[in-house]
Design a protein that fits this description.
heterotetramer, A alpha/beta (236), B alpha+beta (744), C alpha+beta (81), A: 236 residues, alpha/beta, Rossmann fold, 9-stranded mixed sheet, 25% strand, B: alpha+beta, 23% strand, globular, binds adenosine-5'-diphosphate, binds magnesium ion
């Protein structure tokens, strides 16, 4: 399967995503510089974590205007898979490919630590290898991870089963204490209506090898691979 | 100010440039005439303590600097260590104490930026940072402000520039209230056969200026770092620089990309004394001359004089020499990252540093004169009159604690010992997915992608020990750093260091310095860990009051196999807990004396380096043989604290312990004394025989203390008894620092 | 000419930074402070053009980049010189 | 009553954010933008007191906390209601 990893100036998790996809999961990846205007044909695009344009002004605010984003949008509209991790999630929100915005953590601190998130729906190409309600241990690493959207939007997300991950306790409870950044309703990740675009704040690529403390994050990539197989089985 | 009129060089002006009469006369001899204003500025920064090491040079030369693994010792931008498989580790530590006191956030941030540039200058990708910090007591709001700002700056810059801060240390003492220490270590990975050096070679080759534009930032920063603080420091504030981690990230990528071409001849970061220092150091190393035209330098501000352009310390700038004819290659790569890349001069054969302002020559100085002929001082030293006084310690006058459990909790809650999670959680410590053992253990352990092995890094330096006995303090800084690396499963191989001291023109300070260096050199010799580089920060004084002499050691270790990575936390209930080494009555200079008795007194524990070496060999062999499941050295707080940390450092798996500590010593010494060369390990009962055999071979005493298990910390002796729930220990240890910063 | 742009968080949106500053002010003895909201203040220097044209351009800048309508609102003034 | 506080970077102090926004605006076709400086805009609600007293208090707040004298300068207005 072919992954395109979009590299903005200031991105820094592109090599980690590449490492996991190639060395842990044996897939092909290419790094795509943000100034590209056309994309090769990729099964899945990844917008990695980091600090695109230094996070200046607002996270993702400037990156969304990068030349490559028009191609990313076309890929998404065509139903192609797009995974935004951390800063990538912030870019997707600014670009309008996902609803809402990510604001400064209520702790007023950058936070790098393991958290627990609960899979709220397995009905996405990114979670179909998980079971609904499954608790994953995956690290976060952000200063602006507080998910916000107006009530109507949040209601719609819930109604359409678009809330994909919530911050929970190790036991699976979405308590306030389990919410590291003040996100609305403990929301850690959402998908679009077409369910082919996912954004999440936690870093699955940092939890893909037991050696590093958790391999739960591998499930997201495994899901993508599985959905690709079923897709190719059923002719488009 | 009009670029054409420069102030006349008067005695007042010379003094303002902190050049002594003798130094000025030397300048006149070197030039064969009086210097111009610009030349005066250039000499003053190049001959500042910060750039010239004039007071420390002769002593640093006593460090062992060579060994089978050392590819590059002191003298370049950073040291280089051979890791095998064609891999090389590039590492160095740098201080930014003075700027961080003046503006904690930006001071610390630009310190991080500076040390990172030293590393990728060598052709290495920076993959890890460690920070060694010292502050005054946190009950003072000003110290909380300083610490919050410094940690914020390291977090803000380090995270955004994309280099994880994987470890470090923070210690607290009154003497740092008006002079905090901010030492940052950076590690990079390079191919051993693809290293780059700061040499200006090839007469006629173009000299490129790349990176951010030049403003009036930090002019005289270098001389500032070489002066004692006083009330007037406030006035120097405008020299503060602002860091731009985004631009530095682009600079890293652009330079590493350029290094994959064949265009690059030499490259050097613009750090202290900016364009001046970088250009003449490159010429000096290359045995050439350099000519630059300040008119061509990209600027951020109007009307800058040649003097300002040459001395500006604007951040995120590099100077590089390219092969003639490759100009377009260089410009192309930097354009891709939207960075300036401008030819500002060329390499010459005349051995001169020539600065033009268009057609006008504003400085013309023999490079040899600036660098090789810089003043070197063997400053007078005197053992302070008060040294005997602070070493005197009458144990009989010190009452035993009524409640040993309470004493233990006070130690665990002492900010120097307490959990530093509130600090390291603000740092991205996972980027590059190498962090096998992150902050919170004795050393950090990183895997080497594509290789079997890994590397370990620790930073250590106990200023209180060094204050009480500079020689022993120097020895322990090295020995403990090596021990921290060993208990993590690695073999210590090389050292970088940062020497933080007071005013070297005071004989007492200079004595502390020479003694500490003597101790460090002896330890590096004995432990076979050569010094590959470092940094000296003098004048850490405010209004005549010096900090504790504080040598900080950064130790690099190598793991043959990543599976050797070991942590302090117990791994399972029912394991045996064993002490390697012997406890003596070492209360002098201990955290216990300070925390429980308010005393900074006595002689710090002495170290027999042969014993130290044997215990380290023993522990490492036991780890490699898979005999021990956890290992933790005894440092601040002694055996009791080490045992408590074994129970609680793993937040997901607290495991209790039940031990009794045999011995004839007074109980507080037994529990809280800081005898060196001791390591606590835990192991399966079945493996005790194998451990014993290994220990016997190394002549290391083994004492079985007890067993892991349960949810309490139980420690019994003839005359004392501690029985505490892990929740209580955890609250004391984990809750302490965060309480000080709750309002934030 | 110059434009001064003020970008503030919308009413309903929580402002932890403002709240942190408020409580810090309180501990410093400024108990009279009831509430603090923190936004951005941008000063943009422009080549001289007729005022209305400048106004319209700055409006575009705000819509396109300077403010995010999901969470922020903006206001600006354009002045000569 | 309310105080509006404007905190800006001193002249000459590098503003990486402002410069990045400027070049972003340029690539978006706003070539007329010569320079961008980004500061803070704070709205502080206070219990009513005589204007002069309020002014003096806000001045103190700025000195003590709201602005960092090393690199920033401030300006403020106090208004009723
Ligand atoms: N400023 C810091 N940044 C990152 N990690 C830190 C910092 N200070 C302390 N730590 C971590 O806390 C742990 C304990 O530090 P320290 O008490 O110095 O250990 P030791 O006593 O073994 O030298 C270490 O793992 C260190 O990495
Ligand atoms: Mg230790």
């Amino acid at each position: 399967m072919r992954f395109g990893i979009i590299v903005f100036p200031g991105s820094n998790c592109e090599l980690d995503c590449r490492w996991v996809l190639e060395n842990v999961l044996g897939q092909q990846t290419e790094l795509v510089w943000h100034k590209e205007t056309a994309l090769g044909d990729y099964d899945c695009l990844i917008l990695p974590g980091g600090f695109a344009h230094g996070d200046y002004l607002r996270t993702g605010a400037i990156a969304r205007f990068s030349p490559v984003m028009a191609a990313v949008e076309r890929h998404a509209r065509r139903g192609g898979l797009v995974l935004g991790i951390c800063n990538g999630f912030q870019v997707l929100c600014e670009a309008g490919l996902l609803p809402g915005a990510l604001l400064r953590n209520t702790t007023m601190h950058f936070l790098c630590r393991q958290v627990h998130i609960r899979v709220e729906t397995a009905a996405t190409p990114f979670t179909n290898a998980c079971t609904r309600g499954q608790v994953l241990r995956i690290p976060i690493n952000h200063n602006e991870g507080r998910y916000y959207a107006d009530e109507a939007t949040v209601a719609r997300l819930t109604a359409n089963d678009q809330v994909v991950f919530r911050y929970v306790t190790a036991g699976g409870e979405p308590t306030e204490a389990a919410n590291p950044n003040g996100s609305l309703q403990n929301i850690a990740g959402i998908c679009n209506e077409g369910r082919n675009v996912l954004g999440l704040m936690p870093h699955p690529e940092r939890a893909a090898e037991a050696l590093l403390g958790s391999a739960d994050g591998r499930l997201l990539f495994a899901s993508v691979l599985r959905s690709a197989r079923t897709a190719s089985a059923t002719p488009r | 100010m009009n670029a054409m009129v420069e102030p006349a060089v008067t005695d007042a002006l010379i003094a303002a440039h902190s050049l002594t009469r003798e130094e000025y006369d030397r300048v006149v001899v070197i030039l064969g005439r009086a210097p111009t204003y610009t030349e005066l500025g250039i000499f003053s920064v190049m001959w500042s303590e910060h750039c010239s090491y004039k007071s420390s040079k002769v002593h640093l030369q006593t460090f062992p600097t060579s060994g089978p693994r050392i590819l590059q010792g002191p003298g370049e931008n950073a040291g280089v260590v051979d890791l095998g498989d064609g891999l090389a580790a590039v590492f160095k530590v740098e201080s930014h104490n003075h700027p961080s006191y003046i503006e904690p956030y930006q001071g610390a941030a630009t310190g991080v930026g500076g040390i990172i540039r030293d590393i990728f200058t060598m052709g290495a990708r920076p993959i890890a940072l460690l920070d060694s910090l010292r502050f005054g007591p946190l009950h003072e709001a000003r110290n909380r402000y300083l610490m919050g700002g410094v940690v914020g700056g390291i977090s803000g810059y380090g995270n955004a520039v994309g280099v994880p801060t994987v470890g470090g240390e923070v210690l607290f003492a009154d003497c740092y209230s008006h002079n905090p220490l901010v030492n940052v270590l950076c590690l990079g990975m390079a191919q051993a056969d693809k290293l780059f050096f700061g040499r200006a070679g090839g007469i006629g080759n173009p000299v490129f200026y790349v990176g951010a534009k030049t403003g009036r930032d930090g002019i005289h920063g270098a001389t500032m770092a070489s002066e004692t603080f006083d009330e007037r420091s406030e006035e120097r504030r405008p020299t503060v620089q602002v860091g731009d981690p985004f631009r530095e990230k682009l600079l890293i990528e652009a330079c590493l990309e350029l290094m994959r071409t064949d265009a690059l001849v030499g490259i050097q970061d613009m750090g202290a004394a900016g364009l001046t220092c970088s250009s003449c150091e490159m010429a000096s190393r290359g045995g050439t001359g350099v000519e630059v035209d300040v008119r061509l330098v990209p600027r951020r501000e109007e009307g800058m004089t040649p003097y300002e352009v040459m001395l500006s310390e604007s951040q995120e700038r590099m100077l590089l020499v390219a092969r003639r004819g490759t100009e377009e290659v260089v410009r192309g790569i930097f354009a891709r990252y939207d960075l300036d890349a401008v030819v500002v001069g060329r390499v010459t054969g005349d051995g001169l540093m020539r600065v033009r302002d268009g057609s006008r020559i504003v400085a013309e100085i023999p490079v040899k004169g600036l660098v090789a002929e810089a003043p070197v001082y063997r400053r007078p030293t005197v053992r302070p009159a008060w040294q005997d006084e602070v070493q005197r310690l009458d144990l009989d006058a010190i009452p035993l604690p009524r409640d040993y459990g309470a004493a233990l909790c006070r130690l665990l809650a002492s900010p120097s010992i307490a959990c530093k999670a509130t600090v390291w959680e603000q740092y991205d410590h996972m980027l590059f997915v190498n962090t096998v053992v992150g902050p919170g253990a004795d050393a950090v352990v990183l895997r080497l992608k594509g290789a079997e092995g890994g590397i370990a890094l620790a930073m250590d330096g106990n200023g209180r020990y060094t204050f009480l006995d500079p020689f022993i303090g120097g020895v322990i800084a090295v020995a403990e750093a090596a021990r921290n690396v060993v208990v993590s499963g690695a073999e210590p191989v090389a050292v970088t260091n940062c020497l933080n001291f007071g005013d070297p023109t005071r004989p007492e300070i200079m004595w502390q310095f020479t003694e500490a260096v003597r101790g460090m050199a002896a330890a590096c010799q004995a432990l076979q860990t050569p010094v590959t580089g470092g940094n000296v920060s003098f004048y850490n004084e405010t209004t005549g009051k010096a900090i504790f002499p504080t040598p900080i050691v950064g130790m690099l270790g190598v793991l043959g196999h990543i599976s050797h990575a070991t942590t302090p936390a117990w791994k399972a209930a029912g394991d045996l807990v064993v002490l390697l080494g012997e406890s003596r009555e070492d209360l002098g200079g201990s955290e216990y004396l300070q925390v429980c008795h308010g005393m900074i007194q006595g002689r710090p524990p002495t170290v027999d380096l042969e014993t130290e070496r044997r215990i380290q060999r023993c522990c490492l062999e036991a780890i490699r043989a898979g005999v021990v499941r956890s290992a933790h050295d005894c440092s601040e707080g002694g055996l009791a604290v080490a045992l408590a940390e074994g129970c609680i450092t793993d937040p997901d798996r607290p495991i209790g312990v039940e031990v009794s500590v045999p011995g004839m010593l007074r109980p507080d010494a037994l529990l809280f004394g800081e005898t060196q060369s001791r390591i606590v390990v835990s192991l399966r009962e079945a493996d005790l025989g194998r451990l014993q055999a290994i220990a016997d071979r190394h002549g290391v005493p083994v004492t079985a203390l007890g067993r892991t298990g349960g949810s309490r910390f139980v420690c019994r002796g003839r005359t004392y008894h501690i029985d505490l729930s892990l929740a209580v220990l955890d609250q004391a240890w984990r809750g302490s620092l965060s309480a000080f910063f709750r309002h934030r | 000419m110059r434009a001064k742009v003020y970008v503030t968080l919308k009413k309903g949106v929580l402002d932890p930074q403002g709240e942190t500053v408020r409580s810090a002010l309180e501990t410093l003895g400024f108990g009279e402070v009831r509430d603090v909201r923190i936004g951005k203040f941008m000063v943009i220097s422009l080549n001289d053009v007729p005022r209305d044209e400048a106004r319209q351009r700055v409006e575009e800048m705000c819509k396109k980049l300077l403010a995010n309508p999901v969470i922020e609102e903006y206001r600006f003034e354009v002045e000569e010189g």
